[in-house]
Request: fold
Amino acid sequence: QEEMEYVELLAAEKHQVEALKNMQHQNKSLSMLDEILEDVRKAADRLEEEIEEHAFDDNKSVRGVNFEAVLRVEEDEANSKINASKREVEDDLGLSMLIDSQNNQYILTKPRDSTIPRADHHFIKDIVTIGMLSLPCGWLCTTIGLPTMFGYIICGVLLGPSGLNSIKSIVQVETLGEFGVFFTLFLVGLEFSPERLRKVWKISLQGPCYMTVLMIAFGLLWGHLLQIRPTQSVFISTCLSLSSTPLVSRFLAGSVRGDKEGDIDYSSVLLGMLVMQDVQLGLFIAVMPTLIQAGASTYSSIFKEILRILILIGQILFSLAAVFLMCLVIKTYLIGPYYRKLHAESKGNKEILILGITAFIFLMLTITELLDVSMELGCFLAGALISSQGHMVTEEIMSCIEPIRDFLAIIFFASIGLHVFPTFVIYELTVLLFLTLSVVIMKFVLAVLVLSLILPKTSQYIKWIVSAGLAQVSEFSFVLGSRARRAGIISREVYLLILSVTTLSLLLAPALWRAAIMKCVPRPERRSST
Reply:
């Protein structure tokens, strides 16, 4: 018995020694893990110090910064207990909505902690809703014979402030829609070769300038009769003189070009004039601050303001010359090798081709923006430069870019619908119809008059089609009108009238275009033009 107890005691001591060794080994492993975690913690602290911007502390003492109270709004939760964790997470990530005292709504754009990924679920819901509703709206317009773009505009009306008011990220939707304009103008330029641009450049330059001058002259005349300030008259006339490039681009998609040597087709003239109007838009945006100062100036300082406007015009013309010189260099030395490299790298993988073309569009867009010329012109020139590489290149790139353009164009036309207010149109329907018809008829008559003077005698027949394409008002009047209203150039009532007249003119545009095509285009070309 004593021997058995001794053996058990030895076994217990042996087990205790082994347990002690295992514990020491575990403690050693834990100490190594603690050291690693401590190093990671220090590295994480350094990272947070490097990437954290003390935006509040850095800007609260800047001149012109004011403290303002805001409301923080959480979404209504049907079941607070089930969604409590979700609410806590969103509160921690800062994804709730803020509303200031002027009823502007804000959603997080840059978080304090950039190491945690975030997604703006408001924006995601908005895009998903637009995508789903645009399908039945587009089908409905196709069924009754209207262009699908009006279905997308109706989609925006239904979801916008005048409808269900379900769109929360209006600014983000409009920003994404601008890319639809960029890709649309790129594809327009892709079908618009430099040879065609060279053929109609004089008409494209002279026509919009003459029309704008005549519109301003008529605006000042009516402003004098109605006792409207000259600054307001000039602004309204300039807004109404612009025409919608995206809309007309959709009309011209797949239209037939002139095949005869020396013949000028209506699509070339119309696109050239619209691109020039986009340049005028950039010029007018640049001149607008001076126009605001001129409205508040005395007669003694008007001469200085006029001189400042002339200097701005000179700067824009210099920028245009620099842009076209750069395009000549790119066409001669760069675009050919660049596309061949893209084509060689993208065999079996269209991703490289799409990325390379998109990067080239954004490069041209950035260059024209830096030179104070409209970004739309840069997109158009990017397409025109690539089209110089031949028909096969054009077809390949168009097949890749068109699906992207179509989706973004849906967002763009839906964003236009967000600014359409049917109730205001119904209340003032008689006045708005009179104003819209007056503007459309005036623009049509002025375009016919100007084109009759500058078009060759052999191409006089296209003046009716081009005038019909220019008779509506550009959607960019929404942008100009909002800026002018904030600056005090126009009142709230005039701003709503401009929005409504623009919308109604865009709705009348397909009927006027179809009538001009049916009247002036020969039957073989009519099928593809309509």
Notes: The first strand starts at residue 71 and ends at 73. The chain has one domain: 130-255+265-520. Strands lie at 71-73, 97-99, 105-106.
